[in-house]
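Q: Could you fold this chain for me?
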Amino acid sequence: MINSSQMVSSPSLTQMKGMTSKAVSPSQAHSQFADSLKQAIDQLNHSQVESNQKTEALAKGEINDLHDVMISAQKASISMQTAVEVQNKVIDAYKEMMRMQV
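A: Sure. Below is the predicted structure, expressed as structure tokens.
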């Protein structure tokens, strides 16, 4: 589930439309893509770290709210599954482009 803070940090559709209407140099496109990818990986890492911290705190008896721990673990799991699926699609697209004859 995406909360409002995650939605603010990722580019909206209107921002993305604005990026495509302007001429963007290859170096700018590379930089924007790299920044977006780094931000997505940082968010994924943050959810994984948060889940691990809550799980450890539950095991130590510092947290009594099992529901919160399970919800954060499920969010981290879904985020990781999504990242793996996106990675697989990107690799498939790359392989398809390499098979194309010019």
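A (continued): Residues 82 and 88 are 10 Å apart (CA to CA).
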